[in-house]
Each structure stands twice: as C-alpha cells, then as structure tokens.
C-alpha cells in the first residue's frame, strides 16, 4: 500500500509546532532549539510557531468584540509572525 496515496510528499521528516508560551521560558526555548538543531542534522525538520501571549490576548478580545472570522484569522496569523 502506498502511504502517500492522495497526499503530496513535501520531503519533511519531522513537523514541529512550537507553542508561543515558550516565550515565557528562555532557557527551555534555548534547550529545545539545541535539540531541534541536533535533530535537523539527520532529518528534514520544519518548525512553525504558535501565537503565544499575543494570540491569547486576541482570543480574549474576540470573545467581547466578535471579530469577523477573516479578521480574527489575520490577527492570529500576525501574532504567529511575531513569535516566529
């Protein structure tokens, strides 16, 4: 059976989402960075960031103001740009 049937192969071995909450603990973030660097020496790794405190604040404000879905998405994506 072809495990990639119906899926595009991007040539990635490991996909990691880093929670934006890592911003609060620099030592843990550095340790994780070192671990990912070692992993990347032998694997194809893609890392993408979470939004962290900025994203959490957007979620909190949205509960009151009820942003349109496209605006909400854009704000959260920009929060990820900041933490990335």
From TrEMBL:
Keyword Kinase: yes
Domain of life: Bacteria
Record-linked Pfam families: AA_kinase
Alphabetical list of SUPFAM superfamilies matching this protein: Carbamate kinase-like (SSF53633)
UniProt entry keywords in alphabetical sequence: Kinase, Transferase
MF (Gene Ontology): kinase activity
Gene3D superfamilies: Acetylglutamate kinase-like
Domain Aspartate/glutamate/uridylate kinase: 14-71
Protein's name according to its UniProt entry: Aspartate kinase
Native source organism of the sequence: Streptomyces sp. SID7499
């Amino acid at each position: 059976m072809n495990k990639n049937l119906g899926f595009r192969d991007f040539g990635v071995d490991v996909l990691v989402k880093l929670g934006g909450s890592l911003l609060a603990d620099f030592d843990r973030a550095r340790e994780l960075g070192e671990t990912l660097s070692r992993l990347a020496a032998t694997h194809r790794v893609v890392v993408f960031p979470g939004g962290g405190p900025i994203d959490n604040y957007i979620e909190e404000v949205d509960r009151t103001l009820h942003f349109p879905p496209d605006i909400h998405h854009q704000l959260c994506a920009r929060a990820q740009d900041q933490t990335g």
